[in-house]
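Worked example 3 (structure in, sequence out).
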């Protein structure tokens, strides 16, 4: 199964997708080194993610370089718990897209104490197959979203 990273800005480039759901531009929190460093003023950054297929399970994963912070994923009005990094700095959120609800406000909430890198949004089946086959969690090439 081919892995596809559906996260719109997998390098956290200030020139890439940096708009939040409410129209706020978070480009200033992306210094250009592949990280997102949410500003303390708002307490978090909320970055938009695309509409996803109904009833399908997805995995969002990201690395917390300083092992702090946490993320929450919001898809079609369904909120995940706030997930903190494990001992290696990895944050993994699994979420099945509900059959109802608007996906206009799909987003990932990054809390301000973390320094985040390597965001990935992919099908849970592809994520599980890759890890089960001994592949690394992160994509090894220049992966960009399709479309």
């Amino acid at each position: 199964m081919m892995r596809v990273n559906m996260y719109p800005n997998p390098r956290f480039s200030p020139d890439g997708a940096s708009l939040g759901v409410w129209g706020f531009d978070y480009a200033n929190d992306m210094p250009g080194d592949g990280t997102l460093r949410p500003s303390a003023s708002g307490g978090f950054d909320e970055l938009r993610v695309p509409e996803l297929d109904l009833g399908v399970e997805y995995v969002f994963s990201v690395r917390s370089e300083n092992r702090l912070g946490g993320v929450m994923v919001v898809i079609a009005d369904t909120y995940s718990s706030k997930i903190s990094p494990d001992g290696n700095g990895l944050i993994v959120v699994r979420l099945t897209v509900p059959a109802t609800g608007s996906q206009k406000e799909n987003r990932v909430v990054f809390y301000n104490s973390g320094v985040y890198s390597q965001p990935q949004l992919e099908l849970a089946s592809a994520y599980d197959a890759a890890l089960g086959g001994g592949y690394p969690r992160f994509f090894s090439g220049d992966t960009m979203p399709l479309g």
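Notes: The first helix runs from residue 124 to 132. The chain has a mean pLDDT of 88.
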